[in-house]
Please model this.
Amino acid sequence: MTAPQEIIELVERFERNVESYQSGKYNETQLRREFIDPFFKALGWDVDNERGYAEAYKDVVHEDAIKVGASTKAPDYCFRIGGVRKFFVEAKKPSVNLKDDISPAFQLRRYSWSAKHLPLGILTDFEELAVYDGRIKPVKSDKASKARVKYFTYREYVDRWDEIASIFSREEVLRGSFDRYVESTKAKRGTAEVDAAFLKDIESWRDLLARNIALRNPDLSTRELNFAVQRTIDRIVFLRICEDRGIEKYGWLQSLLDGSRVYPRLVEFFRRADERYNSGLFHFANDPNREEPPDELTTSLEIDDKVLKEIIRDLYYPDSPYEFSVLPPEILGQVYEQFLGKVISLTAGHRAKVEYKPEVRKAGGVYYTPAYIVEYIVENTVGKLLEGQTPAAASDMSILDPACGSGSYLIGAYQKLLDWHRDWYVDKLVPLLEAGKSIASKEVQALLPGGGDAADLGAGTGRGRRGKGKGRNRKTGPEESPFPIFQAKGGEWKLTTEERKRILLNSIYGVDIDPSAVEVTKLSLHLKVLEGESEETLSKQLKLFQERALPDLGENVKCGNSLIGWDILDSDPSMTEEEIERINPFDWEREFPDIMSRGGFDAVIGNPPYIQSRSGLLEQFDKKYYQDKFKTAEYQLNTYGLFLEKGVKLLNRNGRLGMIVPNYWLSTDFDNKLREFLFIENNIYELLNVYQVFEKVTVDTLIVTGERNNSIKFPKICMIKGIDRSLKTMPERLLAVKSKKWAYEENYSIESKNQDVRISFSKSLKLNGNSTLKEYFIFKFGMKPYEEGKGNPPQTRNMMLQKVYDSKEKLDDSYLPLLRARNIKRYSLEWQTEWIKYGENLAAPRDPEIFVGPRILVRRIASGNYLDGIYTEKPFICNTDVITLKPKFSYTDPRSLSIFFFTGIILSRACFSHLKSQNVNLDRAAFPKMYVFSSCDQFH
Model:
């Protein structure tokens, strides 16, 4: 690719005046305007938004590089595709030596690394251009060459233009060249994801604080200790983020490193924050407008100076690699999601120790929903509800996450609302503002929520339609405008803080059983409200209107058990306070009276917990309540199914449900009631298989999208989709789903009440001329080799596993051949001479007849383009990954279909292709969901 003429001219002009540019008098603003902007325009980027894209989709975001001490508020340029960040560019004046100076490189790398998803970043003064790998954690002592993957001088731009453009031109980024280059240069050593690093840091702070607070404050209970540690960390992190965003003076907390009595001085900072922000995070005095009691515990704590200084020092340059101004909210949420998986307990000697919560230990960790899954669910629930609406109509929209965790789904929903309101106002309201219309004009009044009344726009406390706000007239300045938007210095239109607060208070709701999770959700939402604010705007707001910056979210995000109400006391009125505290019952009508009186929420979204009844984590009290109160509750419970039912019941007439759950409920025997409830009594209109999206977790998942039905109408249509896994990244796969319609008529719903719902639904797919395998075979899965409580105490587990599961010889007649799934090939067996003791050591022992006689054995998990399986008559005990098909027909009767015929059909490429195309559980299909035909001709 030949360098364009404008690049040749830029290089020549810089060459002619290079000494002047290097003198130090030529500043960064001049450089950006005269050289860097034209450079990237030549690469095809719409630097000045000449195409007039909406704010959310501009190619380039220019940040105001406001100096706040030793840091800057944000990088100079952010280059995006479709609103998604691709890379940062940091500009310096030509007098700076980029090749050898450590500081500029460290600054850029902190931006890219903190943003996590930005693998490359550019540092340039036009004289030099350096490309850095943003995946490598920056360290203050790194040389400027560390993580630098490319370096150019201005004299090389023309000759090496093809190399530059092939990676960073807009056209090549769209074609995927940027991503391919990133993949090809993937760092193998020295990488450390920002979320993992930050999690490690805050976990170390928790350890330090827990041990020190427990030592210095011996009267604290376990609950009080957890509260004190969590609040102290949250407050420090909040204020530190505000500093990097320019909301607080940079170095405010850092000043505590000088001198003694650090905690009493820190408490004074917290009290000032209470006056400034009105956040429940800083709530120390009685307030008649708040239901939540003030924090009277933490202000009197004893904490050693050394501990606090170590934490604060970790948050500042040069020790800190973080640039909080660009740290994505979802990353902070992901860190806290993991953080909340552990809890502090006290030993008999009042020493603190941190350990995993039982449910987290059982599950093997905390699994955070990736951002693209959140975006998909939000777009297909909240996004659909917003179509064709106005801000006035959207003011009544209520969105709930009933198991909100760290708040990732609520953050996603809130961001969607903010973007939609801003774009709507820019499209409809800005033309009227530019024409000089006042807020009193009929045209403007018609476009504003509440008819333009200042109180309804969120003035005062920002509570909007709840009626607690006090209207005020705003006359001058963008921050004082009565309009819900204003134009920032760079020309970008933004929502006012009052409008952001109004939207948040009117529309975003969450519940979680963990009080720490509730506080983290509030913290995340408060930080989202403050995006784009500065110390100047907040101070002006406080000074002129005696109005604090943040809304009180106590009425929006609440602590309680979403599945269990206070009616649990009806079954056992003598329940102890300790038991009630553990259950934490929640009354939806009492806690959200306005919403419930209107019929329920407009959207219920989230990733509910997956807790099985057999895991030992559900108490008998809870299980009995679920059996009595949930119509979908079967003997084998899993809480995600209960959350699906509860989510639907919490919706109003036109509400939409969107959740990600495991996909095996579509085919298991004990989920009939759940399928009938969702598909027949209500309306599921999309199932999207996304498979294994949780890191280090093998469970296959799908996104369920549906609505509440107030009357049963047929026929029903459900779009069954699967991501295209040939694509490299999950976001791309979600844009290329394969789908088909699944129609089911009324007669199948009637039959389903007395028959297997699974079979009825399978038949309703209208596949002409087919029958299910269940008409010819009995299906049985194998068994687990060991289960605690089945005749063996837990402490003998390792011994028993070794003894019964790995025996290489037949010890007595109770030992039978053990066949693992990996022993089964296509039309052959490779038995490894293993034996298993048949008896009480086995989990849920099957009828021995399953494992003998003529039958077909098939591996449950397919590999390649075929199923692996074989016909056999030999006795084998199979594990759970092997499906046994016992024929219902007489295989010796010459008039019957041959079992060998079925073996050939099942193991054929055609059958496997059919299974992949027609089964909603594409990867781990249970055979009752697979179809075969009575003639091979129908496969052609």
